[in-house]
Design goal:
By secondary structure, this protein is of the alpha/beta class. 38% of the residues lie in helices and 11% in strands.
Amino acid sequence: MTIPPTTDSAGPGARPTAAEIVSGSDLTGRTCVITGASAGLGRESARALAGAGAHVILTARRDDVLGAAADDIRREIPSARLSTVVLDLASLDGIRVAAARIAELAPVVHVLMNNAGVMFTPFARTADGFELQIGTNHLGHFELTRLLLDRLRAAEGARIVNLASEGYRIADVDLDDLHWEKRDYDKFRAYGASKTANILHAVELDRRLRDDGIRVCAVHPGRVATRLARHMTRDDVAAMPVERAGPPRRSDPDPGILTPQEGAATQVWAAVHPEPLGLAGVYFADCAAEPAVAGYAVDADRAAELWELSERLCR
């Protein structure tokens, strides 16, 4: 595998596309699993990685949209090596079935991109009784990652990328009331907590797996024009929390709304760059380490507590 450094063409202030990140790269022989690959950032990540020669396993909840996404990529890249697996992150049983199918398709997984997610949904519970946003965005990916660890270890240098968001600044995780059983539901704070959980998951997972040659990070894609915000109304926009915890991000020029191709750049960069995790921290944005991270999102003790709680819930 040949992956040229990308820091000359990507970094603070640069707005490359995912395809530009892997331009000139050869990912032949590598297998990448992407959740939520039927649309948006997941599909653009799949397109870029397949274009560089990787075998990409696309996962999503519906077989028909998965097939349509694969067909779309093959029209552009006839040589693309693609497989599809139905995966419902809101069902532990469904995750176990999907993980078994992925294991059949891939004896080795080099990249696991935990990309799928829901945002600002009305109150609902998963098949296992978890609050929908924490259940899908964090616990579903927690269990999928656990079930694929043997395949990731076999890569002898795998990468796990959790899609987080600056939305984590809206709220910390309440470890005493993860599923909103004691509080009035707030869909904004529930989303923020789920994104904080994505970062904390990366912190603890990286600590546990780095000696196995597996490195883990979380990324912020920027504000991207996708269907993720389809549950938002005009009233929701007005009600969005404006006070955010922790230090503000570095003062880069605001890029405005990114295209999915631009938004997918950081997660693809984190997946394939030779040494992005040699930089300080575990949280990345704009194809670079993000230094201004709220302490609660990278606290090692809280990351370990969330891990233990997640492990109990997913048994």
